[in-house]
């Protein structure tokens, strides 16, 4: 199980405690967890004038190199290179999705798990660059020579400049690792035919509200979750299903006080990560121990993720999950951690009615 972390392609790393795969390995037989780092921010996605397209998405290239390394070496750690899957959260999930489109013929992995992110997620669709603004801020000006100047600037000066303003450095279409025509590529079959487990958190953007608030606009949060996460995901899964790709989908609804200090926070963006990794007791600054339901939900999620990893084609079917379809009246959406139970199956219409008509 190879994990790609999130962080809007600008921050993050495998040293973050809730990405510790120890508990997954301890509690599940015959599983190896690998977490990878990749270049971020202007190091990984410079979009700089003077650089050829093949050198603009270095972070995505790092991900491929890491997966190739695991493929070539995992046998030395007791793993099987022919049974690898890729999973990620937020832009890590988007990266897994992007990866499947970039390597349709030789993906090396046998399945992908996308937690709260696809190539269609809102932030990923921004093609802007802040290179020239940053290079000008450190005295390197604009134009193609700015890259050579920036190479000579001490890192602390660049970091200080970035602290003053907001800078985003994201993937840009280069024709090999990242594309501008994903829908067309999927419709023409230019995608790795890998089984998919994908889902979202019930209140993805609730974390954007100040914790000092006593309540939030629930309708607004739901609308944001639909627009930025569920509907883009549904749209993309529909495209994948037309390629006869087996798909399973979930919505995470856990609301646990040691992870959500305000009751209105609920299942916000990233809140499922401690449940997947079993790190719910080591990542929270709050004193409450994990509840029994939280522990049960974590075990259930780990069981599902591992079942998929061991058998991407039918592991989740054996685990009791229905396969995805976009027929509104059929039960094909798995609810995790809500209403006092670790799991249940919902009629898709409960959520997908907000995405009708399809975004295709």
Automatic annotation (TrEMBL):
GO molecular function ontology, one term from the record: carboxylic ester hydrolase activity
GO biological process, one term: monocarboxylic acid biosynthetic process
InterPro entries xrefs: AB_hydrolase_fold, AChE-related_enzymes, CarbesteraseB
Family as reported in the entry's similarity comment: Belongs to the type-B carboxylesterase/lipase family.
Record flagged with keyword Hydrolase: yes
Pfam families given in the database record: COesterase (PF00135)
Segments forming domain Carboxylesterase type B: 1-222
Record protein name field: Carboxylesterase type B
Keyword Hydrolase part of the UniProt annotation: yes
Keywords tagged on the record: Hydrolase
